Protein 1
Amino acid sequence: MLSLSVEGEAALAGRFAALPSAVQVAVLAKATQLAEALRAHVVQDKLSGQVLQTKTGVLRDSIEAEVTGDGTQVSVRLFSQGEVRYAAIQEYGGHTPAHDIVPNKGEALAFLAGGRRVFARIVHHPGSTIPARPFMGPALNDMAAQITDELKAAALAAVSG
């Protein structure tokens, strides 16, 4: 009959029991760091000239990152916060329906057309086709290998450490 005893069995069992928590903490911390790096890449690169030129900065300033973890998984969400209704159509492209444009602060609209100033009480806009100008998807593609490598390294370090 074979008998086996392991010295430090309790310590080893404790270490195995703590692994899921340690890995979760390490991955959550790394995901938070990488989410901020991804958000910065979108804001500082993609929305500052690489894909879209900054006009007002409203879209650029609306980009937020959110990281959540529930003990079994970690999720990162990068999104446009607030009332930036054109964010999705810039990312994916699309069509706007025909609509009327009316003044909201005065009695008439004023704009330049053909080099002349034009005033109108209403403009019948025929709708638009907006081409996709993706800024989030390509940013994620740019960083995908780094994200994978760093998350894997964080998990392995937690297991080893």
Protein 2
Amino acid sequence: MHIQKTSGQAVAAGLAKQFRLQSLIGGFDRSVFGAFDRFDTLSASALASIHVNGLPRGKAFAGHMSYSTLSNLAPDVQIMTALREPRSRLLSLWMYCRGRTDDQLEGWGAWQDVVTLSHGSLSEFLNRDETACLTDNIAVRMLLWPHPLIPQGLPIEERYDSLLVSEASERLKGMAFYDVIENPAFVSNLG
């Protein structure tokens, strides 16, 4: 379960090398797009990376996909994720989005408008309803999606924080592996 800007590509590449995996199925599921529904504006190649009707058959997945999407693959599926200190992840996400060029965003249609909200200040980016799906505790969102207390197009209401964090923590405990990338023992723990 690759949470954006948590070194997921590096971890996936290391696992693929270690286990001699020929391919990893990547991409996105619906959980990371919040209330965005203008998929008709995306190019065929962009749409090919978004798995809205389930995942293709495969042995290993390393994408921006929720726990519920991945857990529906098979009864014995093993799910892992890397977490990151939230402020560092948000700064990394903001800088990453700011660095996307028009060429890199070509084909992403109306989603490009969400990404380019990063061209304003960090505060503006963090306080837009359109970006809440990326910025407002994405780890909890991906662990619990879909959840009646997590709105798709708005920030999570603060009054639900304790309950949702508790539910997300329980979900983490059922994973094959999870750790925080800032942990100096991350690599040895993963090993």
